[in-house]
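so my prof wants the structure for this chain in the tokens format not the other one, which i didnt know existed until like an hour ago. anyway here's the sequence
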Amino acid sequence: MIINFRTLLILLVVAIFANSTLGIFLPVYFHAKNTVLFQIILTSFLSILTAFVALKLINKKLSDLHKIANEIVKENPDTTTNNKNNNHYFKNIYYFLDNIETILKNYNHFITNQNVLLQKFSILNDKLKKSNQVREVMLEVSNSILEINNTEELFKLILEKLISIIDDADKGSFIVLNENNLLEYKAVVGYNLMELKGIQFKLEETFLWKKNFGNITQPCIIKDIRSFDNSHLSDDTYKALDRINALDIKTCLSIPIIIDNILYGMINIDSFNIDAFNEENIIIAEYFSNQVSIAIKNHKLIEKILYLSRYDSMTNTYNRCYFEQLLDKFFKKASRYNESFCIAMFDLNSLKQINDTFGHDVGDTVISKFANVLKDNIRESDLFARYGGDEFIGVFFNSTPKDIRNRLESVIEYFNNNPLHIKCQNITISFSYGITHFPEESKDLNYLIKLADKRMYEYKRISKGKVCTNSK
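here's what i got, hopefully its the right format
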């Protein structure tokens, strides 16, 4: 308000009070004979004074509006204002009286400008929200790296999150460059991965390569996918994609994934809308591409660290520390559900003699060969680890000692029939083993391991005798 109600009320109360008080006491004080005339003069004076104060307050309040009105008019070069009373005591009131028509004419112009500003603000706000969404998605991906077991799970998560934040995105795929320099599908959303597994692309057949004329570092938008693929893909690849309805999409946003300046793969975001995707999506894609590259690189680094902490690098079997962690979990599960398993200890025979005769490189080859053959002859559900030096340990679930003995004797026969040919000599790999059975022989895990180790050494002493075990 130009002047608020409280200020106006105070002025009126003061004027009425002054008029009443002075109207009574002043005539008496001056011994005025005509009291009515005196009161009329006093009332007029107080009214003029009150009006003056009110106008002064209004003029002060209009000062800020004066500045705003000037700014509004200045924004429209076709109009000017009259400031001839700029030095008047009530200059702000005179300004509005003189220029009310001009100000009203410029009001629509002002409102239009405000709407434009609001629209720009809305666009910026939407971009900020989208930017925050992207950051939140990448934060979620980064936080999930430690929980994800393999890169394909990471690819699927990245793909799902990207589709969720890009408008009009319906489907998507994550393709990776393999060792044959061909791109193959690793994760999909909205497609059947098994149907796409057998389809591979040359780099020169991809959207990025064709659309960007070999520049595979920048995202691009491709429209009319069927026509595009028909022009650039081989007949076999085109027909394979057509059979599984992978060409029904209208538009694709293709995003390169570059790690250490080398193409790692591509993310393709697909839409059924021919007008889907724009330059804003390109900007999001560029940012996402950089962040995904970092996430994949970090995941690979973590995978490598986890591998080194869990596996023996020479034999690619579990190391002792990680094996004991897994065994503890399986032991608790077997104890709870009354499951059975066998423990087998292994030790290579004559390894010291092989090292002394042929060198430790040959000894390492013998160890690796033994481990690889053993792994090929046990189930994925079983455990097999390097326990130390030339000793190994295996845990075989839901098996009897007889089953394990028969399996290991066939491995011994294989080694006898397939010696290693090294330095013009044949080296027959030989090993000893001992078997124990849970829970038949004991429910004490440490005792079972020690007993299997003892039987393994007894077997080594008798060499070609039968496996030393009391179990049937």
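also thought this was worth mentioning. Confidence is low (pLDDT under 50) at residues 465-472.
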